[in-house]
Amino acid sequence: MERSGKSDGKTYCFGDYRFIPDRQLLMFRDKPLRLGSRAVDLLHLLVSHPGEVVGKDKLMSFAWPGTFVHESNLKVNIAALRRALPRTASGLSCIATVAGRGYRFVAPLRIYGGSQPHLSFDAANAFIRELPRLPQLVGRHDVVAELAARLPESRLVTVVGPAGVGKTTVAVATAKSLLDNYRDGVCFVDLAVIGDPQLVEVTIATSLGIGGRSANTLAGIVEALRSHEMLLVLDNCEHVLSTASAIAEHLTLALPGLHIIATSREPLRSRSESVYRLSPLPYPDEHRGENRADALTFPAVQLFVQRVNEACGYQLDDADAPVVAAICRRLDGIALAIELAASRLPLLKPTTLLFLLEHSFEPLVASSAGTPPRHQTLLATLEWSYQLLSKEEAKLLRFLSVFSASFSFSDVIGVADHIGLAIEEIAACTQNLAAKSLLSAAHDVEGLRYRLLDCTRSFAAEQLDRSGEAANARSSHARYLLRLFEQAEAEWLWRPRNEWTACYAQRTNDLRKAIDWTLGHGAQPEVGVRLTAAAIPLWDELSTVAESRQCVERALRCTEALSRCDPAIKMKLIASYASGLNFSDNLGPEADAAWTEANRLAREIGNVDYQLRTLWGLGILQSFTGRHRQAIATLEQFAKLAGGDDERLAIVEGERVRLTAVFYRGDIGRAHSGLKRLARDNATSAKRSAVARFQMDRFVSIRVALAMTAWVAGDRREAAAALQDALDHSVALNHTVSHSNALAQAALPIAFWSGDTEIARLHVAALARNLTLREIAIWRPVCLFYRGVVGSTDGDPEGVDTMKLAIEQLVANNFLVRVPFYLATLAEAALREGRIALARDSLSASFDRADRQGEHWSRPELLRVRAMLQRLDGDLSGASKTLLLAAETARESGALFFRLRASTALAELWVEADRRDAAAELLSPVCAEFDDVLPCVTVVKARQLLEALRQNTYPD
């Protein structure tokens, strides 16, 4: 090659380097490198003969024409080139020395341009003004800003995302925002209009408005754009991916002034590509979007509302806000789906549209005739992606539609290990589906997890049904979950609760789906029954009482159809069914029978764990139904069995229930000291316990019992601390059953006794909220009762009737524990309202039920209210005797708080009888037992009365 001033018009590319001899320019990526002119000439000659040996004389005559130079000059310049250039994959220099002969360029080389007929490019004739006209951008301004910022550095940016997510919209919006940044403008190329990869080059050339003829269209494009600065938008590359990728990389390497934005459902996989993953629009979760202001903070809702407003002037209000939020949630924030749904709203109410979408995505049909066919329905966009899949990828996608929530790769293997693909092939297909935006991939604490968008899952499930593979896929899904949850059942014994729950709680939807299928249309009852039994610990940990009971009942019915059912499985199901009845509104003979039968099966197969569980559950039931003496006997049997089997923690669970029954029997002092010991001995270990074995968290349940007992015993400081621990820990656990138990059994009565109506109101609201989240029917009447108590205290005349109705429900449900106390509280409230007959009837029923149940813990309160009626009747002597008996009964039982209430009432009575000294003498030792650290109306009232008596200021 003789040196001359004639241009060869070529660009040489190797690795990330680009060499343009005509401009004496060597660039690394977009940065020019400094080389001497001789070194540039030497490089030009070497790359012009790639792989060939170029002699030393030829190199020197080319770089130093007509001049004699020493060979050392050649060596110096070759050394400079080697320092500037990369090494090959094997670590060798791009320029190899051939001893005694010369040098050879050995790096892989790509050559662009050269002796091609010139193609003319006229920026004015390019289709720059043909950028698609799109509606106003909503919720994507930060994305546009990010893309605009990336382009100068990356030069090739691919916007990747699932069908309908809005890739074209953000690419066009970015292009429009950058029009002034490119001297020769912006060109949009829609590749969706072609189906043949060979037409990509021609389509780009046509869109650019390039004229002329060339045997090599791509080379002609390079020549036509060589000195231009412009932005090229390549839209919808996924169906011509490899061709589009090669062309995009070729153009960016050959044309320093060209930047490209591509859109695709999977990355181009180009060396120079920067991938931007476009996520769906943020939308409200189940706990957000309840009003207009909150809903409109989410871009998905903003897009929906704006499109409907443009169509018919619609304005979102508070009533529609949760419905629109649910629509956007159902559509996973997919922009196309939201726009299609919005187009239906002028004809449908939001509630109707939501109802239709919950059953099918068919309503999502474009109303505009100008919409591209692939965007005219949501399913059409998915069909477009589906047709681009390989046979193996399509089959795996169909099988993955059985998952209702996110899943890991091990889950994929578990479901698809028998579909005829090796694990390596399944892994490759999974990765490809994620790359093609048909699977969403995200990392959590357990690693990479995948998810199908609802619309994609619906489409894939329909394809699964059509393929005839549905039964096989769903059976595989159910059997995999059975293996998983039987493993979970074993892990529950040793794995930390928060870790175990986090691992398996996310599978509840899949669990529900598999059980429903196996016990229903799938007709695999044995699998469904075993899966239900294995899932019981999860339902208990999550407090999903109603769902657990419903599934267990169904499984028990199915056991009758089985020729044989493992006794251990049946035992677990019956015990779980009995446990559900303990939380229900029916504490009748059926619950007793269930616990007894489960215990019989446990003894029959020698399962000590379930013997303990069933005895404990029976003891709880007996206490709940006012059979405290029986409960104590059952729990003593429990303690004997647990002690013989060295079940230390189980002994604690039984002792807590036994001491609670002792409290209800009226021995407050013994129950208090025993519960204090339990709390002290289980201050830390119980915090780490699981809850499923005995229904409630041990740390919480001990402190609930202690709080109630300590308050009645007069230790308000200890009661308040125990209650706060119970509430805080149950909330931290997110265990609704334990939290509801703490509210109903301790927080509400303590708030009532302390006279803090506002706190009581908050606790009622918290319990009511829990009951809407979980079907824990046993606490509904208790919540209703305290709502009535708060209302009555506030002066609401309906409060007393609400309390009366709640007690009637408790009796009807056979939930009799504390009913004597509730009746006495109702009687006192009725007295304040002047409803004397109701007060007498309620108090009479209170004494009658307390005697029948042997429930004497609140007897001082019953006597105090009786004295109020006697005083109303004018029987001051009888009232005085009754109050003395109430105070003495409280003293004997250890109920210091009730003793203070009775003594205060008696002191008031004696003051009226002009026995002020006796009243002061009565109150003084009792008041001395209480401090003023915690507010309490009873203590304040007693102290004020005592102080008035001491100062002789009590009014006559």
Indicate the topology.
Layout: E1 10-14, E2 17-20, E3 25-28, E4 31-32, H1 37-48, E5 53-55, H2 56-63, H3 71-84, E6 95-98, E7 102-105, E8 110-113, E9 120-121, H4 141-154, E10 156-160, H5 167-177, E11 186-190, H6 200-208, E12 210-211, H7 217-225, E13 230-235, H8 241-254, E14 258-264, E15 273-277, H9 292-295, H10 299-312, H11 321-330, H12 335-342, H13 350-359, H14 378-387, H15 391-400, H16 409-416, H17 423-435, E16 440-444, E17 447-451, H18 454-467, H19 470-491, H20 497-504, H21 508-518, H22 525-542, H23 545-559, H24 567-582, H25 589-604, H26 608-624, H27 628-644, H28 648-665, H29 668-681, H30 698-713, H31 716-733, H32 736-754, H33 757-773, H34 780-793, H35 798-812, H36 819-832, H37 836-853, H38 859-872, H39 876-893, H40 896-912, H41 916-927, H42 937-950
Parallel strand pairs: 10-14, 10-15, 11-13, 13-14
Antiparallel strand pairs: 1-2, 1-8, 2-3, 3-4, 5-7, 6-7, 9-12, 16-17
Helix pairs in contact: 1-2, 1-3, 4-5, 10-12, 11-13, 15-17, 15-18, 16-17, 16-19, 19-21, 19-22, 21-22, 22-23, 22-24, 23-24, 24-25, 24-26, 25-26, 26-27, 26-28, 27-28, 28-29, 28-30, 29-30, 30-31, 30-32, 31-32, 32-33, 32-34, 33-34, 34-35, 34-36, 35-36, 36-37, 36-38, 37-38, 38-39, 38-40, 39-40, 40-41, ...
